[in-house]
Design a protein that fits this description.
Helix content: 25-40%
Radius of gyration: 21 Å
Number of helices: 10
CATH topology of the largest domain: Aminopeptidase
Distance between the termini: 14 Å
Number of strands: 12
Structural class: alpha+beta
Mean pLDDT: 97
Largest sheet: 12 strands, mixed
Order of helices and strands: EHHEEEHEHEHEHHEEEHEHEH
Bound molecules: coenzyme A
Number of domains: 2
């Protein structure tokens, strides 16, 4: 490999030159992966990095070309300083297409593995997609295992059956004697954070395939920090929830994120209903009510995107009925550090 200049970047306090170069390489890879999507503005990248939550320990190495005029690659490793998953390190590597197959990815990977080892993490996680095939080839070369296979699924609003949305809402509203439908725009209400984190625990009920991960139980303090980062990067979160009237307890929720930097794309995040309330059409009601509201609020929306495990039959059923179609694959890979050392030492 040529002698490229690899530098650690201080993510919360980098120079303007570093933020600009980093944002540029991020968008070059984004264009390769999602050619129709708009680039991420510099301000969004910078604000996101400056507002990283304190429990996310993210270290990044950047690779510069010979005359230091362009960033040609970056690798990062993220360690969650949480009570759970102390065995994990998540990483990501991107290399500019003109500089691939020269060993840069391997070199960055070596630095990531060392940092994970120094922090006593034994399992590495990352994700790839079928838009850039090299990602999967790299994973196979490392000896990584597929932990969870899924897709980013997309709904084209031009194909949406508005009558179906209307019917799901009508059907759902028959439950109004039992449940109240509510919405939080933006931040969650401070006085209900304890109940809300219990609601968000529903994320643990998604399929995790063969991934060796533990359930995550976010704390109110962590949630507040995550919201702060979201707001800083311009994400507008909407949460529709259902409250059981008799007990005053949450029954389920759905969340979407809209960002003025890409007004045509609505991101659909988690939808979950507690097991005792399933089979009543509450999931359909939540999603239909959310879609109706968001399309009124932001008529610019042309696409809704969501990531689902291929085994998540319940969610896929609803999404398929709505007209979501596969947009790209999303494969989560895991690898034991003890196994990858052999490759690195070759
Ligand atoms: C995946 C990626 C980071 C690889 O970067 P790179 O600098 O080209 O990787 P390297 O040259 O260090 O290759 C590392 C090993 O993977 C193999 N490899 C990499 N790309 C490959 C491809 N397209 N086909 C077959 N093997 C490939 C190399 O041959 C090498 O094996 P070797 O050590 O036996 O020679 C780069 O293609 C990329 O940026 N892809 C988009 C982002 C992504 O998907 N990242 C993966 C998730 S972290």
């Amino acid at each position: 490999m040529k002698d490229y200049n690899i530098q650690v970047i201080n993510l919360k306090n980098a120079s303007d030159e570093e933020y600009i170069a980093l944002n540029k390489i991020i968008n070059i890879i984004r264009k390769e992966r999602q050619p129709d999507d708009p680039p991420i503005p510099l301000e969004e990248t910078t604000n996101q990095l400056k507002n990283l939550p304190s429990f996310v320990d993210l270290k990044m190495w950047c690779v510069w070309n010979e005359d230091h005029s362009e960033m040609i690659a970056q690798g990062n490793v993220g360690l969650m300083r949480t009570e759970e998953n102390k065995h994990l390190a998540q990483f990501d590597i991107i290399v500019h297409a003109d500089y691939r197959r020269q060993g840069i990815g391997k070199q960055l990977y070596g630095l990531i593995v060392k940092a994970a080892q120094a922090n006593h993490r034994r399992l590495l996680l990352t994700d790839t997609n079928d838009r850039i095939r090299a990602g999967e080839a790299f994973m196979l070369r490392l000896g990584a295992q597929r932990g969870l296979e899924g897709h980013v699924n997309q709904l084209r609003i031009a194909d949406l059956d508005h009558q179906l949305i209307h019917e799901w809402i009508q059907q759902g509203e028959k439950n109004l004697t039992e449940f109240e439908l509510g919405i939080w725009e933006g931040n969650y209400p401070q006085e209900q954070l304890q109940e809300i984190i219990e609601l968000l625990d529903l994320t643990n009920q998604q399929p995790f395939g063969d991934l060796e991960v533990e359930e995550m139980h976010i704390t109110p303090e962590q949630l507040v920090e995550m919201q702060k980062m979201d707001v800083a990067r311009g994400n507008q979160r909407y949460t529709f929830y259902l409250l059981e009237e008799a007990t005053g307890k949450f029954a389920g929720y759905t969340e979407t994120v809209w960002n003025a930097n890409r007004p045509e794309i609505l991101r659909q995040d988690m939808t979950g209903v507690f097991p005792q309330f399933r089979g009543k059409g509450l999931g359909r009601w939540l999603k239909a009510a959310m879609l109706e509201r968001q399309l009124k609020l932001h008529p610019e929306i042309k696409f809704v995107r969501t990531t689902n495990a291929d085994t998540n039959a319940a969610m896929l059923r609803i999404n398929n009925e709505l007209g979501f179609k596969p947009y790209m694959t999303s494969i989560l890979w895991q690898m034991e550090i003890s196994q990858v050392l052999e490759y690195l030492n070759q």
